[in-house]
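Quick log. Single chain, no ligands specified.
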Amino acid sequence: MNGRRDVSEDDVRLLLVEDHQALSEMVAGHLARVGFVVDSVGSAEDAITALGIMRYDGIVLDLGLPGASGMAVLEHVRQRASQAVPVLILTARDSLESRLAGLNAGADDYLVKPFDLRELEARLRAILRRPGPRQTESFALGNLTFDISSWDARVDARSLDLGRKEFALLEELMRSAPRIVIKDQLEDRLYAIHEAVTPNAIEAIVSRLRKKLQAAGARVQIATVRGVGYKMTVEAQALADE
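-> predicted structure:
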């Protein structure tokens, strides 16, 4: 694997909003097996709460939810300027009017139940490939660059060979640099809500990323702020903080 990744390999984070537990577990399980990080909720209220605390790369949204409908979630997402996130609607409503209502409200695609998991995966990858505000972002620090559109991390002209969680960690640190990123925030971003996290999991990922950056000659350093989290700085600043 080299530093450049396409959608078929991305470990993007998805929010699955589906109240049918068996279907939710089946969909979440399949998407996790093919490389996505999936947070699952069963109501519009829980979805809106999750969107307030987490940044998602895509949403799989059932319309027939208890209480407020999936349309309320879609409207919430599209009313927020920062939420230009792709949304794939799942529904048992097979009428043309229902499909048009969802698409006109801002959905990117529409899949009617029952559906094949392979089609769901293919449609998700298609909408995730479409250009949007998030895909234009790039970051630079010292001689390290990171292009969100291609998930290509480079030191000078050389691509870094990073694992999926190392990519996610690098993104969080570069987005915040030189500010501190709290450890709990990193756990939230790198792991799904219900995924077990060992006590030293973040430390292990930080250690691997440090070694790869050092081996590549990156003029940056990941500094540990004891009891708080981590920050990425250019080399001279990081050394001064030690």
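Residues 181 and 230 are 5 Å apart (CA to CA).
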